[in-house]
Design a protein that fits this description.
Helix content: under 10%
Largest sheet: 7 strands, antiparallel
Number of strands: 9
Number of helices: 1
Radius of gyration: 15 Å
Structural class: mainly beta
Length: 127
């Protein structure tokens, strides 16, 4: 066992409280979509953002934990035709995005964020 970098290795969590590292390489998302990374219920991931998100996403399998490490983002949530905006401008703050809620973000300052996502059934649409 050795320490890993979250930018290079996401973490898969399963329903038996198991956890395992997943190497994030050029084929990561394709392998995930093909089911080649095995079964898990949540994914811990890390991203750095300099630009607004290009898409909306929704997670029908559960709530998503969105954690701001540094920077500033405006998180936009849409549910049942109602849109709400939340500015995340304090390091170490978080929001829990409700199940079945579309969300996207405007990046106000370059940001680093951590996510715990229930990925099954996730949908994406352009902004």
């Amino acid at each position: 066992m050795k320490p890993l970098l979250i930018a290079e290795n996401f973490v898969a969590l399963d329903d038996t409280n198991g956890a395992r590292a997943l190497n994030v390489d050029a084929n990561f998302w394709e392998s995930l979509e093909k089911g080649e990374l095995g079964d898990f219920s949540r994914l811990i991931s890390f991203y750095e953002f300099e630009n607004d998100w290009e898409t909306w996403e929704i997670h029908p399998s559960g709530e998503e934990f969105v954690y701001l490490i540094e920077g500033e983002v405006e998180l936009i949530l849409e549910s049942n035709g109602v849109t709400s905006d939340f500015v995340m401008d304090k390091a170490n703050s978080f929001i829990i995005v409700p199940k079945d809620t579309w969300h996207t973000a405007n990046v106000k300052k370059p940001s680093k964020m951590l996510f715990v996502t229930p990925g099954e059934g996730t949908e994406i649409r352009p902004r």
